[in-house]
Amino acid sequence: MLVLWPGQRTATRGRFHCPRWAHLFGAACGESFLTAPGRANGARRPGGLRGLGGELSCSLGRRGIDGTGRMIAGIALTAALLGLGDKRPNILVTIIDDVGRDVVDFYGVGAVEEQPPTPSMDSFATKGITFRNFWSMATCSPTRACFLTGRYPSRHGLGAIVIGDSITLSEDEYTLAEALRDDGYTTALLGKWHLGWKYDRFTPQIVGGFDWFSGTRGNIGDFFQHTENVTFPGTSFTTRTTSYDTTWITDLAISAISSLPEPWFVVVSYHAAHKPLHVPPQELHSQGEPTDKTIQFLAMVEALDTEFGRLLDAVDLSDTTAVLMGDNGPVSGRTQYVPAGRGKSTTFEGGLNVPMVVAGYGVNPRHVGVQTEALVDATDFYATLLGLAGVRSKEALELDSVNFAPVLRNPWGPSPRSWIYAERLKPVGLGPWNIVQVAIREADRKLRIDGEGDRFLYDMTSSDPDNAQLCGPACSGFNTTPADQARADALQALLESVFGFALP
Hints:
alpha/beta; 12 helices; ten-stranded mixed sheet; 3 domains; globular; Alkaline Phosphatase, subunit A
């Protein structure tokens, strides 16, 4: 059996050829092929924004933004603002794992000696808009679920790392990939899934909305060889990787975007620079053969950057909206910039404020290279990417997503959000939770409530906000100014309206 990306048929001597990526899966040429229903010959669907003049409505319920109770992202307005015409962009989202802002040069933070060369990411930033105030969640599974659902963890139930297959992303969620697929996009996820995999019903294809998947259920124990799950319409199998993982994923991604019928939505979800720390192939970095764990981490980041550059070389940004985003901050203590106890798995800035750049189709070319202070969080890709694609969501569930496309037009304009929010909830599920860590931020202040119920207020105008604590652990009484206590009380009230529950 020959397994093909939908519609990719090359006739020679009366039979079909293997696509050029087939050897990556160990696929064998045969007499038949599989294509997705309704997609033939790789033809691009006619352009045109669906529902022009309609609206992408995200009901916010108890989480109402600025008291409106609803978020309206008019598709016609988005098209007018961004000058999109009648084209439907391809969408490429690249997720990097455990990489903070301090090890990519274009943010200008962190210790110079702990910044590996990242010319590809730096170049990408010059072609797009860099977001300085983008929040992920504190760990990877919640961020990925927020990205796909447009909903916070207390809604979708994945508030911490998914371990094993005890719980998965719910079938009730209508994901970003599903919404795009239902409107004619071909969808693919390559690399790390990490949202649960249970039986044959809870897979990236079924609950995620991805036509094509080649990757892993979660983290990997060996970057040089591991088992991949591969699912296509009508078939599923496993294979062993035959090259360095970051290279392997890049090869898959380049083959996919050159073969998929347009428009496509491809998520490239790298495992790097997550542990196990190691020394990548020498041709991918300049760090030598380090034994020091921090230098190994930097070598992994540099290798990731090298392969990201190769991926970008295969992308036409004139008709592709491209996103680079982190899934959470680095492990605490990995670098000087993120000290112990203030990185991944925490609601400090070191755990939440991660790299994010948008480039290509939909970005005002007069403003490329600009860094914006707009507040954006991981849920907001849902409304934004659907708006750029001209897709009206059929989501019946309450959404938290806010369309930040206007920032791509004018990065100095008002922030689409007045606040951003993050939560870490354990155990995984819809509660009850025995660990609740939440944080909410407005432009100048942030309130963080830890697992003990203590609350801390921070000055976000500081160059080092994690060390700019204004009050805590109570933010009340003789050690707190009346102004700081009033601000902490107001932020807690806002936080509880978002979270939906009163906190102690």
